[in-house]
Predict the structure.
Amino acid sequence: MRRLGVHEADAEDVCQEVFMIVHRRLAGFEGRSSVQTWIYGICIRVAADYRKRAHRRRESTHAELPDQVAPEDQHGALEDQQARALLDACVQTLDDDKRAVFVLFELEELPMTEVAEAVGCPLQTAYTRLYAARRVVEAALRRATAARRMP
């Protein structure tokens, strides 16, 4: 959920909302797609609703980097955490449609046919959104990396 723009402090509540929707609608599941794809579709819609509510409250949805310097034995873990935070920040720059496709394909590793079903668009549209999302994320990563190298 965090990758879909849900603030870490609210992730548990949003997941609970997803589970409640799944429970209520399970009897109506028609089986035209896999259960996983169906649930991802619900996650995408609930996360989008959350972002709209959070935007109205003007909450920040970006991950924060730790304020302290970690001891040497935790240096690798800190670098991993910073890399994840950087990727999350770059993903947050995407619009909702591109973010959903990027997260489901690149991070959740769903096949593109299931991604297209989950977001409710034709397969070619999903590929177009993925291509555009990759370009935006790559450019954001390049800018962030260049900014870190500058003194």
